[in-house]
Design a protein that fits this description.
This protein is of the alpha/beta class. The chain has 2 domains: 8-40 and 278-446, Serine Threonine Protein Phosphatase 5, Tetratricopeptide repeat; 54-264, 3-Layer(aba) Sandwich (Collagenase (Catalytic Domain)). It contains 17 helices and 6 strands. The protein has helices at residues 54-65, 94-110, 132-138, 153-159, 186-201, 226-235, 246-260, 277-287, 293-310, 315-328, 333-347, 354-370, 374-381, 385-390, 394-410, 414-432, 435-446, and strands at 2-5, 84-90, 115-117, 125-130, 142-148, 176-181. It has a 6-stranded mixed β-sheet with strand order 1-5-6-4-2-3. Helix 1 crosses helix 7. It is globular.
Length: 455
């Protein structure tokens, strides 16, 4: 069983409210505002990126493919052999099928995976749309998940904790099920499709040290990246087959990556160090559900201590500061802001964490708005809208644009603010889903301003 965890980094609602704020409604966020039609993204193509060194990619591939998130080592390589078919069952929301078609087209074109849609009951992968409650009744911390050798949630419940659904017992992948929430926002449904279908096809592990991958529990990247497509292309390389040992796969990978990533034929960098399980556990306690505030704050402090002790200066150090800021935000806005600034400082060290910086920018811009500094707020969000759009992150894009609209309103540029807000709301409907959630987001950002400017 692999699952997309419920970590709040991507849950932008209520994520950008400083401790001290006003509840005065904005004229841009009235309860009777008419919401425009939902906007959707065209089919994406992975953005060009500087190629990784092949020795680094080989290390990543081995760790992603031969280890579970729990730390359990897998001794056998598995994948689908032959054509892969995907069907949809359950109460699928309208956007699910169109987003799935786009994803399958990308897998065919960018990863060379022999995959296609079908309506037949013997499909290789069954995508079942069920309610969030049904998923969390089985896995309380999961937004969605994938399991082997089943085709329905009922079947999974019966076979759970048996060898049948044990990934370590697989020798070849023949039948899997992906469980997707039918009552989440269109973006959450799509994000689950990308992560869980990718893990149904290939790597089973998540590595926090990867800055630009969906195979990372920080949930920053929500659609498959160029790195992810490269990992899947290697997974389905003709040189590999199910049943191979770690050594057999390792022996073939240098030739595979020389072929599929010719620009990476150079010495490796060594990549980042391993991520201790204690840090992973601390992050999950700090940001996941189930713990009290004091326990979560303690876990965030522990995660930061571990990051400092490890000597990290990468995205994991930044994420540690981000987690600590989130837990300080309700009680100490000054300290939280300092931690967000530290997170941004570490994220700024790499061009591959630009999207991460966009999340931090929403927090820092919120503080600027609450202090009546609209020019600062606009300067903070402006560099990040292109990254949000390129990554097809509608909730993040909408939040950045709504913050910009509120800043324009503070400056008295009412008509310009209305135009920006109207454009953002179509993305908000895709990113946040239900109309009441979109309206709540409007009210949240409006509440950052004590005085909404001239009439």
């Amino acid at each position: 069983m692999r699952r997309r965890l419920v970590l709040p980094l991507i849950m932008l609602l209520s994520a950008c409210v400083p401790a001290s704020q006003s509840s005065q409604p904005s004229r841009l966020a009235g309860p009777d505002i008419e919401l425009p039609p939902m906007k959707t993204f065209a089919a994406p193509v992975s953005a060009p990126r500087a190629p990784d060194a092949n020795p680094d990619l080989i290390r990543d591939f081995m760790q992603l493919s031969f280890q579970m998130e729990s730390g359990r080592i897998l001794t056998t390589f598995t994948r689908f052999e032959g054509p892969v078919t995907v069907r949809v069952t359950g109460d699928a929301p309208p956007t699910l099928r169109s987003d799935l078609r786009q994803l399958i087209a990308r897998l065919q074109q960018e990863a060379d995976v022999p995959i296609s849609l079908t309506t037949e009951s013997d499909a290789s992968i069954t995508v079942q749309a069920v309610t969030r409650r049904a998923i969390r009744n089985v896995l309380p911390q999961a937004a969605c998940f994938v399991a082997p050798n089943v085709t329905s949630l009922r079947e999974y419940r019966s076979a759970r904790r048996t060898e049948r659904t044990n990934w370590a017992q697989l020798r070849v992948r023949e039948k899997l099920a992906v469980f997707i929430p039918s009552d989440s926002s269109p973006q959450e449904v799509r994000d689950c499709l990308h992560e869980e279908l990718a893990q149904a096809l290939g790597p089973l592990n998540d590595l926090y040290r990867l800055p630009d991958s969906v195979f990372n529990d920080d949930n920053v990247h929500t659609v498959l990246t160029g790195f992810d497509m490269l990992m899947l292309r290697a997974t389905y390389a003709p040189e590999l087959r199910s049943g191979m040992t770690q050594q057999e796969v390792a022996d073939r990978l240098p030739g595979i990556f020389r072929r599929i990533n010719p620009s990476g034929n150079r010495a490796g960098t060594g990549r980042a160090s391993q991520t201790p399980q204690e840090w992973r556990d601390a992050i999950q306690t700090a940001l996941g559900p189930g713990a009290g505030l004091r326990e979560r704050q303690g876990a965030a402090d522990q995660a930061l201590r571990i990051a400092v002790r490890q000597g990290w200066t990468d995205n994991r150090r930044a994420f540690s500061h981000y987690a600590r800021a989130r837990l300080l935000q309700a009680s100490d806005g000054v300290a939280a802001r300092q931690q967000y600034a530290e997170a941004d400082r570490f994220y700024a060290r790499s061009p591959r964490t630009q999207l991460h910086r966009a999340y931090v920018a929403t927090q820092l811009a919120a503080y600027a708005l609450s202090e009546r500094n609209p020019a600062r707020a606009r300067a903070l969000v402006a560099p990040h809208t292109d990254a949000a759009r390129a990554s097809q992150n509608a909730s993040l894009l909408a939040t950045l644009e709504l913050l910009r609209a509120e800043a324009l309103l503070q400056e008295g540029r009412v008509e310009e603010a209305r135009a920006v807000r109207l454009d953002s709301l179509g993305w908000a409907r895709y990113g946040f889903g239900a109309d009441w959630v979109v309206r709540a987001k409007l009210r949240e950002i409006a509440a950052l301003t004590r005085d909404n400017g001239p009439a």
